[in-house]
Amino acid sequence: MEFSKTVLRSIFLICISVGVISCDQQQGQIDHAQTVIKDAEKNIEKFGASDWEKLESEIAKLEKSLEDDRSKYTEKQIEDANKLIGKYRLLQLKKGVNEFKNTIKDAGQQIEGMFEGEGDKDSTGVN
Questions:
Q1: CB half-sphere exposure, 37, CA atoms < 13 A
Q2: Cα 78–Cα 82–Cα 83 angle in degrees, nearest 5
Q3: Fewer CB within 10 A of the terminal residue: the chain, N end or C end?
Q4: What are phi and psi of 86, to 5 degrees?
Q5: Quick one: DSSP state of residue 120?
Q6: Whole-number Cα distances in Å, 20 to 31, 67, 69, 89
Q7: What is d(CA 67, CA 19) in angstroms, rounded to the nearest whole number?
Q8: Is the pLDDT confidence value at 19 over 70?
Q9: Buried-exposed string 61-86: b where 16+ CB fall within 10 A, e elsewhere
Q10: What is the distance between the alpha carbons of residues 34 and 88, in angstroms, rounded to a whole number?
Q11: 28-37, pLDDT tens digit by residue?
Q12: Distance (Å, rounded) from C-alpha 106 to C-alpha 82?
């Protein structure tokens, strides 16, 4: 009888340990993604192509983990992960808007250059 209690206790403790380790792994992934997102939010203007690739990779891992192992996440962790994914989507949008602004600015400067070149012609139509 004593042996059964000891075995049951051991099994119980192992199950608890596995559960805690599993939760820590999911939380660790969320915490890491949160750190990367915060860095991106602070430095979006300085982010280069490799930074965006790392960020995209981190979010892809989080999304895949949520998809494949959703049952291992608590409701709070799922909520936190989805909020981070939403912040990433917003960063992508901001990046696109900034790139579009730069494209418009460049086009405007090019058009100015075209008109300035036209003003340089003399009365014969030749520069």
A1: 23
A2: 120
A3: N
A4: -65, -40
A5: T
A6: 16, 20, 15, 31
A7: 19
A8: no
A9: ebbebbeeeeeebeeebeebbeebbe
A10: 10
A11: 999 999 999 9
A12: 36
Q: Which two tokens stand for residue 88?
A: 């990433």
Q: Which amino acid is at 126?
A: V
* Global pTM value: 0.65
Tokens 């460049």 correspond to 106
Over residues 64-104, the pLDDT tens digits come to 999 999 999 999 999 999 999 999 999 999 888 888 888 99
Q: What is the DSSP string of 47-92?
A: --HHHHHHHHHHHHHHHHHHHHHGGGS-HHHHHHHHHHHHHHHHHH
**Is residue 32 within 8 Å of 61, Cβ to Cβ?**
no
- In angstroms, the CA 118 to CA 114 distance is 6
**Residue type present at position 101:** K
